[in-house]
Amino acid sequence: MKRLVIVALLAITHTALAQDAPKWKGKFEQLDQKLPTPNEYRSGSGAPGPKYWQQKADYVINVELNDDNQSITGSETITYTNNSPDVLKFLWLQLDQNNLAKGSMTEATRTSAVRDSAAVKVAASTFNLYDFDGGFKIKSVKATDGSALPFIINYTMMRIDLPQPLNPGQKVSFSVAWNYNINNGLHQRERTQYEFFPDDGNYAYVIAQWFPRMCVYDDYEGWQNKQFLGQGEFALPFGDYKVKITVPADHIVGATGSLQNASQVLTKEQLDRFEKAKSSFDKPVIIATQDEAVDREKTKVKEKKTWEFHADNVRDFAFATSRKYIWDAQAVKIGNKTPLAMSFYPKEGNPLWQIESTKAVKNALEVYSRMTIDYPYPVAISVHAAHQGMEYPMICFNYGRPARDGSYTPQVRKGMVGVIVHEVGHNFFPMIVNNDERQTTWMDEGINTFVQLVTEIERYPDIDFDRGKPAALVPYLKGDQNMMRPLMTNSEQVIQFGAEQYAKAAAGLFMLRETVMGRDLFDRSFKEYARRWAFKHPKPADFFRTMEDASAVDLDWFWNGWFYTTDVNDQSIDQVKWYKMRTEEKSIEKDVKAKAGDLSGKDGDKKFDNFNNGPEPFSLVNTDPRMYGEFRGTIDDKAIMGKLQGKNIYEITLSNKGGLVMPVVIQWTFKDGSKEIERLPAEIWRINETKVTKVFVKEKEVESIVLDPNVELADVNASDNVFPKKEGSSKFGDFKNKSK
């Protein structure tokens, strides 16, 4: 009879679980069906394959900036190396300035609406009322022998037909001449602009997307053919640059690369300070002072000078120039190199920029180098530009301006430091680990925002940075699902760009590091990804596969949920039962029959909504010999019972209401006031993706239980995370946002 009762009890429990189990939705399905098949170019481990290849584009450029009419005139010779196994009959170049041309695709597809009592500035932008002649004016495209090459322009793309097919391993050189008008940043908010300062009648220029640039041709999709519509950024091949920049003789120029003719463009005093900065590791050296900048603002010479810069193995080139610039620099020790951290800023940026900018550059270089690879370039530059935040190799443009009297709020400092760390960090993603921003934005913006957060937490403990923390993402996750897009969405279709491609992607990596994998495993895997793909072109599959390959952690469930869906994490505590083992002998038949209802989850009218009624008793009986089957040995029943003697046993039923499978983080608070955090892997949901029950054995009596107490998993509803339930509890009320 004993055996029959036990078997019946097991059958009841199994049946209850089967009835509760919902239709399986494949949350733990492997990514094999979604990721491209590994091949000789990209391996299943996430590393470049034995036949991985990429193209190379070298540039020799001469450019002149006209300070009288705010225009650019340039000519370039491009040498393109075909390292692919394919024969190329034509080449594609990017003409991103055409984004600002009249009748552009961007203008035609930009949606708008009339709003009553809108500010004139808003209306001018909405109705495109600025009289600006934007876009490249291509003057010529020629072969090396001077003959014209046929070309056709398709919005922001230009195709050049080659006179001879370009075979694998061959090179071709050709030249392009062009000019264009620089946009006023006050009118057209772009990644490149000029700013006019009416107080002194001068201009400051941050110049990017200023020359026709080669598109990427790769093993994944051939030619990159996605038009630039303003949101999705740039995909570019690596190459070497030699650039001569002609500007007014009293301008100070900062640019990608190493300055080649410092003795010709700097005064003796500036040259001496420049040399001193190369060995100044404790603080910045001011190379061009504020007093010198004020004098230049007044004189406005008409003569011109040409600054020459060289840059090797970079994917782009940008520069900034103004007679208003103050310039400081400091050496940074990175491995066996000493790159210069530098800042260029007008007096309107002081005193904040002199205090914070180069320090932020240095902090970013040091932390990013530790997390990825040692910074390989000779300089890293931060340039002050109004309402800007944009990155290029070795140089970036950043906002953060004090009030006219030089005062600034903590929020202004926070924003400025954050944007500088972020944009300098882009040197690593995507300027070195060179993903395609036009197609997969999170691979640079999200990954970069994550390392930015690590830098901010380590180097700025006095500032409460939260972008990228899971808790800060909760308001977005609680929003309208119709306004959300999965991270694996092309950038031009994303609605909430910052919340998703920046913050959500960063929060996902933060959770992987802090909760799912742990810092050591994550950091080793993340560094391996950077090492494998430095100066190469990774795709999402390469990142996903490398993180798993280097950690032995199956993360397909995480990539599936966090990157391919808009599911959210909403776990709840449905029920908690408190038990203690009886000490007296009981009849097994009577005991099992009495408790069968409890153990099967059917307790009639009995409620388990608090601990006030004390623990429920249960009994254990000696193991029936028939349960050992073929085994000859037995277990020590009394010793096992002794392990449970006096212990508090809690059976918890949890639900997953948001659809996203995540680890379970439980905070136990005991009656003596002590606390314990217990972490269960996400795989606890692998059999039943919506409901699980688990038993915990505790020495001490529990007073309360909380799920995700520090909001490290971005649970969107705190009210059902607590037992016993507290009326009015909220994620941002009872539970603090704590960062590890």
TrEMBL record:
Coiled coil: none annotated. Residues 370-562 form the Peptidase M1 membrane alanine aminopeptidase domain. It holds the Pfam family Peptidase_M1. It comes from the Bacteria. The keyword Signal applies. GO terms for molecular function: metallopeptidase activity; zinc ion binding. Residues 1-18 form the signal peptide. Keywords: Signal. The keyword Magnesium does not apply. This is M1 family peptidase. It comes from Pseudochryseolinea flava.
